[in-house]
Amino acid sequence: MTDAQPTEQAPHPGSGLSVTATTAHDARVLTLAGEIDHDTGETLRHALDPSLTGRPRVVADLRQVTFMDSSGINILLTAHHTATAAGGWLRLAAPTPAVLRTLQIVGLDQIIDCHPTLQDALDG
Predict the structure, then answer these.
(1) What is the dihedral of CA 44, 46, 48, 49, to 10 degrees?
(2) How distant, in Å, are the alpha carbons of 2, 16, 35 from that of 29?
(3) How far lies 20's CA from each of 39, 45, 68, 100, in Å?
(4) How far apart are CA 29 and CA 6, in angstroms?
(5) Which of these, 21, 85, 112, 121, could form a disulfide with 93 (CB 3.0-4.6 Å)?
(6) Beta bridge mates, 92
(7) Is there a contact between 56 and 87 (Cβ–Cβ < 8 Å)?
(8) 4 with 20: CB under 8 angstroms?
(9) What is the pLDDT of residues 57-112, one digit of tens each?
């Protein structure tokens, strides 16, 4: 599925969110694990920052995310707008049922492409 080894690992003990970044299909793939909330938002914001990688194409793999609050929604929306303005995109992959429900309630799944699997997100 990915065509490279992880380019960075950013586990943050005690923060409740870890991020592993790889590259696949000319996109940055962020595998997220844990909770996305006010306390972990800065970790996600940093991982999504295209100025750090120069890649405006990002897939956020959410299959290991157990919880997301409005902080995560706002960060994803901002990242989507930033990527789009740079000629790229943000896609969400494999959200858990609880996270998918949150995305659906606020309508974010209608704004950001949301795919059932990582491969589907990479294929677009």
Answers:
(1) 160
(2) 8, 19, 18
(3) 18, 14, 18, 21
(4) 9
(5) 121
(6) 60, 114
(7) yes
(8) no
(9) 999 999 999 999 999 999 999 999 999 999 999 999 999 999 999 999 999 999 99
